[in-house]
Write a sequence for this structure.
């Protein structure tokens, strides 16, 4: 007789009733979270895949567990233990979900117009695809919510293609058995990816990576279950094995919980998402205002910070001060600044107003601009480079590097020459080799290939334009196509400098102009008298931009009678020292001379022509052909002016006549000088020397004009 103990009929019936109660209790827990509503309301249907739906027919075989029911009641005990184990492991999750969804299950039914609208998906979220093969590698909670919502709103079921044997997807694989074969549920977790040509489990793809022990199923992997390896007859066992796993059950539960929260617009998760999204939008709006203030100050070269950073202090700088002004008309910004004022010292409030944040804003804006410049340069391929340096107030040598390229302007539909600043470089090197090395390092750091350089532009200094050791020579060694063109503005500046030193008379003329500014600006009373008599201000000579001397010479030439009257008034009404009185008398006597009137007439014309050309040459959109054409035109103007001595003398004589100044050059008032007569000369050859007019024309006018024309040729 066998010694094996068998359960009695009463024991078997007791176990069966206990199992049915457990199954029923599991259905009650889940239906408490997911409410079944009719399809006409547009609400979410009762979730399926993990929990059964009663009353549906049996489509066919679905799992090994279902087939083993025919073997007897012994097969029920392991299933019971598995269910009890799963229920015990998810008690905490069920309690949390019960507390979150309690309000939903007890709330009365409302009209569609009274329900809260669902979460609005932004344009960026709309870009998320429902193809698992195109899901981002790292998904945020917001991305998961968007995908779950889109899947729930999908109206038609996805068609799954044929397997590797060419067989269509069978109907019996669309469902799985539940409740001991008395019900069936649809496998809504199964989805096909067209991009990867593979099968995926949606809940596992969305949530399995957050589990401590990720699922090893191919349906949960990034590559999915490739269709080339799929045979539907083998999936008969693989699908039940996957959906009964612990990982799949957990992921499925989280998926349906999130679906309920998103679609019905209720639950703790939904409220937290709404609050989080509201806070994000608020911070974005604040940052947008801070960015606008940063761009406003940066584009106008205004300082950001002051002596303090405190709100309400008049010395807190332009950045904080502008924000305080805007807060009077912006409630959001006002609320933000009020929070900062009322926050306690040492609190963790993020206010975005610190100097570090300001610097970060500037760096981010600068990086964005630089990235755009480099993109334009990359599209243009070829470029020219410009470099110059000057010490700042802190005695630091600031080297500026610029590039020029041809860019297509989409607004105007035209190709334009574009000149862009790319970097300030603190560099103290002075030799051509050192400066060339600095420029090459800047280009290398920015990813600009020096072999694409087609032009160089520097000043006329020996260390820059030297043919042997200059910067242009060093660059030509690396790229012989980088043609050097000297700075046209600097060239014109040197032309004027050399012309001003061509004769003592011209040098003295500019000296008197500068002395006039020094004398008038030394006293407010003198400045007031001068401005009252002439109607304009006096300017000093520019030391760096020689062509700008027109600003100092032109007012004197245009208002010469008023200048002389102002000096006379200062001598008669102001209390002057002996040195100042002597200076005023000397200025008045010189400006009342015919020599000064002629020089003013000459240099107004010369400087005006140079300044007009200099303004054109400083434009960042001209080509080298335009530059050469303007220099040639200026040379022709100077040649025409050189040949117009009689017209200049006639104009100066008319001005002198109006001012009652004798039209005689200074040398005419001196004693006539006779040269010594040699033994072979007659008395006829020992007459008077050249007239003073001829002497002035030859030694002053023609000398200066020839100097300008000669330098413009080279």
């Amino acid at each position: 007789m066998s010694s094996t103990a068998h359960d009695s009929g009463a024991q078997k019936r007791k176990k069966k009733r206990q199992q049915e109660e457990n199954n029923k209790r599991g259905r009650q827990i889940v239906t408490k979270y997911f409410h079944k509503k009719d399809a006409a309301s547009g609400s979410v249907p009762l979730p399926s895949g993990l929990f059964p739906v009663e009353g549906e027919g049996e489509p066919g075989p679905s799992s090994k567990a279902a087939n083993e029911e025919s073997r007897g009641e012994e097969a029920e005990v392991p299933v019971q233990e598995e269910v009890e184990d799963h229920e015990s492991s998810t008690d905490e999750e069920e309690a949390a979900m019960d507390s979150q969804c309690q309000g939903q299950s007890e709330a009365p039914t409302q009209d569609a117009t009274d329900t809260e609208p669902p979460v609005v998906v932004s344009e960026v979220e709309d870009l998320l695809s429902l193809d698992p093969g195109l899901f981002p590698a790292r998904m945020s909670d917001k991305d998961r919510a968007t995908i779950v919502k889109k899947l729930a709103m999908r109206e038609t079921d996805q068609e799954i293609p044929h397997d590797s044997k060419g067989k269509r997807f069978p109907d019996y694989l669309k469902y799985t058995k539940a409740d001991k074969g008395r019900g069936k549920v649809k496998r809504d977790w199964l989805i096909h990816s067209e991009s990867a040509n593979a099968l995926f489990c949606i809940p596992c793809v969305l949530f399995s990576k957050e589990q401590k022990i990720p699922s090893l199923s191919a349906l949960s992997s990034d590559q999915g279950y490739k269709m080339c390896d799929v045979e539907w007859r083998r999936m008969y066992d693989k699908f039940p094995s996957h959906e009964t796993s612990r990982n799949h059950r957990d992921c499925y539960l989280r998926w349906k919980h999130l679906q309920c929260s998103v679609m019905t617009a209720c639950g703790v998760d939904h409220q937290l998402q709404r609050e989080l999204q509201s806070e994000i939008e608020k911070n974005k709006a604040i940052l947008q205002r801070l960015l606008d203030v940063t761009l406003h100050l940066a584009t106008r070269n205004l300082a950001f910070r002051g002596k303090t950073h405190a709100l309400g202090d008049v010395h807190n700088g332009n950045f904080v001060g502008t924000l305080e002004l805007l807060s009077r008309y912006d409630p959001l910004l006002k609320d933000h600044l009020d929070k900062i004022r009322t926050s306690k010292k040492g609190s963790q409030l993020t206010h975005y107003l610190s100097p570090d944040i300001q610097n970060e804003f500037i760096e981010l804006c600068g990086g964005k601009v630089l990235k755009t410049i480099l993109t334009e340069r990359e599209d243009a391929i070829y470029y020219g480079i410009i470099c110059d340096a000057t010490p700042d107030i802190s005695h630091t040598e600031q080297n500026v590097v610029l590039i020029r390229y041809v860019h297509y302007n989409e607004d105007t539909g035209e190709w334009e020459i574009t000149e862009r600043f790319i970097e300030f470089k603190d560099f103290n090197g002075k030799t051509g080799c050192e400066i060339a090395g600095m420029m090459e390092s800047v280009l290398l750091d920015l990813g600009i290939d020096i072999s694409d350089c087609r032009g160089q532009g520097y000043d006329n200094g020996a260390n820059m334009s030297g043919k042997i050791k200059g910067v242009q020579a060093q660059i030509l060694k690396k790229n012989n196509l980088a043609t050097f063109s000297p700075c046209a503005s600097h060239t014109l500046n040197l032309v004027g400098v050399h012309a001003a030193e061509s004769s003592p008379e011209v040098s003295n003329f500019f000296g008197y102009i500068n002395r006039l500014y020094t004398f008038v600006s030394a006293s407010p009373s003198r400045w007031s008298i001068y401005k009252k008599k002439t109607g304009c201000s006096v300017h000093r000579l520019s030391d760096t931009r020689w062509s700008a001397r027109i600003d100092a010479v032109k007012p004197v030439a245009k208002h010469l009678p008023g200048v002389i009257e102002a000096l006379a008034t200062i001598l008669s009404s102001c209390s002057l020292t002996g040195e100042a009185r002597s200076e005023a008398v000397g200025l008045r006597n010189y400006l009342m001379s015919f020599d000064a009137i002629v020089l003013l007439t000459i240099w107004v014309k010369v400087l005006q022509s140079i300044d007009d050309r200099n303004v054109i040459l400083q434009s960042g959109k001209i080509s080298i052909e335009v530059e050469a054409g303007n220099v040639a035109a200026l040379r022709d103007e100077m040649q025409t002016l050189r040949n117009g001595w009689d017209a200049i003398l006639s104009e100066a004589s008319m001005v002198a006549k109006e001012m009652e100044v004798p039209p005689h050059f200074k040398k005419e008032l001196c004693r006539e000088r006779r040269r010594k007569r040699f033994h072979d000369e007659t008395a006829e050859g020992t007459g008077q020397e050249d007239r003073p007019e001829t002497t002035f024309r030859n030694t002053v006018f023609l000398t200066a004009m020839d100097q300008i024309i000669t330098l413009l040729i080279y």
